[in-house]
Amino acid sequence: MGTGKRGLIATALAVVCAVTVLAAPGTAFANPTPSPTPSAGPALAAGKDLEAVRQKLDKLYRAAGRATDEYNAAEEKADKQSAEVVELAKKIVKGQEKLRKLKDRAGAAAAAQYRGGGLPPEAHLVLSDDPQDFLDGAGRVREGHHATKGLLGELTRTQEDLEQYAKDASAQWKKLEAGRKAKAAAQKKIEKQIAQAEKLESALQKEEQERLAELEKEAANKAQTAWLDSGILDEIDGAASEQGKKAVQYATAQIGKPYQWGAEGPKTYDCSGLTSQAWISAGRGIPRTSQEQWKRLRHIAVQDMRPGDLIIYFGDASHVAMYIGDGAMVHAPRPGRTVTIAGAGSMPILGVVRPDPDTGAN
To answer: Positive or negative, the Cα torsion across 262, 266, 269, 273?
Structure first.
């Protein structure tokens, strides 16, 4: 990362330091030091009680994160299924119009035969006295046979196509309805978990809420320090690709915008909404959810990651952030928080994925 980008990160960090999990101002942000613990007054709950609250909140918000992934996946499927239903409907309309025209042609052919006295073309041919008329008529009879056979075959195929389109549309409607139910169930899960977390937090006194925030930062700082103490940052020196730079630029430009589950911007984001939109802005579409990003994008060793790569967190791949260099990442943390810069190792890393090819890095 160049000095310009380092300056950008440092500036952004200074702005959001109150809500990030990095070190307090004055320390190198790549290697945060836990904030000192203020002594608890009589109004505060015991330290271990607040730590239990912090762990409970972490579980609730992580459960909400998993449900958000379920919601986003159901929404993505519903969008695809809706598009497929629309395409099938278009095919049915076109097929019906084609069938109508074919039936009109068949009707016209029947009417022509009726105007000929009800005699088939072969009879008219036999009654002809002129040899040339006979030869011309024989050719027309053959052509007529082929045309009639082709018309009947096309009518049959069109009717079969329409029947298949109708079956496919019916199947897609069933899938769409199942997807809507899955989406509604996931939404209930999200709202339940968030409501429980908010209730738990609102029961705390102001001083306890402030101390809880300190505990959250301390836990993140501890994890980040342990990650950096492993020496991993000495091995991470990959340069961003051109697309990666654009993705980082987009993601960091969203700093300060609120987290909202299911959101893809431009005013609010959830974790995978931020990363997917950042890469779309860079000209590369990627899966919508953190779990699908983990499943379908190319895996990269942590020591090989470069700015723009996505860091997947927790064993269930329920959270994702974008690496921006110097041991930092940008992400949409959880409800009640905003898009912010944090230490890349401040949460348990499952792995790293790369949306773009290796070519183009500089």
So the answer is: positive
